[in-house]
Design brief:
The protein is about 35% helix and about 20% strand. By secondary structure, it is α+β, with helices and mostly antiparallel strands. Strands 3-13-14 form a 3-stranded antiparallel β-sheet, with no helix packed on it. The longest helix is centred in the C-terminal third of the chain and has 12 residues, at about 215-225.
């Protein structure tokens, strides 16, 4: 981003604009107020950013890549380019939440031998004459690895229904739901929608449908924590500053956001 003589910004790449200025914050203005003579170095890797934009092509959506060791946002590409889809737009997460489901079961000491093996006939009968449907009939599911590999709704619902509802909500909050990032990127993370707590509500939460929303950035944080031994590092967009002659200063430190799960649980999920 360059400044005109009048101090107006010129964005050399339209894809960077929504990362700096969006509905949640105006990072450009806050940096300019600090000292307009200094330069700010972003964590974005232009090679990866360009590759992500090429991969998206004409398709609407977002690609977010994080360095799991320090939280650097290496790419945050969105289409349409003028929207901050990667940081601010919420989506129904679906089956990626099943990783949180399994983590919650393991963290709360759930005896998986009481869950598997089981027979998946494509549905699970719930109380109040309600039914949870699976996307396929998986037949005999012998272990949790198989249940995860085929993304079986029945197995995940069984795990969820075996835990206390309070533990279910606490587990989701542990993973950042209903929370907000602070610092230079004050962004809301995923949201849990309130509803009557019954079998259907619990089952849908455990498989990421109807009652959960998540941003692409938050989804990337969850994946990064699994790959980083259960610890999520706070995402950062600014790495350092440079003075007028190009010398770096004010390198932003690595900040741990939260431990989502134990190292042992992260190892199981990684497998």
């Amino acid at each position: 981003v360059n400044l005109t003589l009048k101090g107006n910004p010129i964005y050399l790449s339209d894809t960077i604009r929504p990362l700096l200025v969006n509905s949640e914050y105006n990072l450009f203005e806050s940096l300019k107020r600090e000292d307009p003579k200094n330069q700010t170095v972003l964590t974005i890797d232009s090679r990866i950013q360009n590759a992500a934009e090429t991969a998206l092509d004409k398709y609407e959506g977002a690609i977010v890549l994080l360095d799991i060791r320090n939280g650097d946002i290496l790419a945050a590409a969105s289409h349409p380019e003028t929207a901050s889809v990667a940081f601010t737009q919420n989506f129904e997460p679906g089956s990626i939440i099943k990783m949180i489901t399994l983590a919650g079961g393991l963290e709360h000491g759930l005896d998986l031998k009481k869950i598997v093996p089981y027979q998946c006939d494509g549905s699970l009968k719930l109380r109040d004459n309600k039914v949870l449907y699976c996307w396929d009939k998986h037949g005999l599911v012998k272990d949790i690895n198989r249940a995860t590999a085929v993304s079986c709704n029945v197995g995940c619902a069984k795990m969820g229904l075996s835990l206390k509802p309070a533990d279910l909500i606490a587990n989701l909050k542990q993973f950042g739901f209903n929370d907000r990032l602070n610092g230079t990127m004050p962004l809301d993370l995923g949201k849990i929608k309130d509803s009557q707590i019954d079998d259907e509500y619990i089952s849908k939460l455990w498989i990421g449908l109807d009652y959960l929303n998540i941003t692409p950035l938050h989804a990337a944080m969850i994946a990064s924590a699994i790959a980083h031994g259960g610890v999520c590092i706070t995402p950062r967009l600014v790495s350092s500053h440079k003075n007028i002659i190009g010398l770096p200063f004010g390198i932003l430190p690595r900040v741990e956001y939260r431990r989502f799960m134990s190292d042992k649980t992260a190892h199981v999920l990684t497998d």
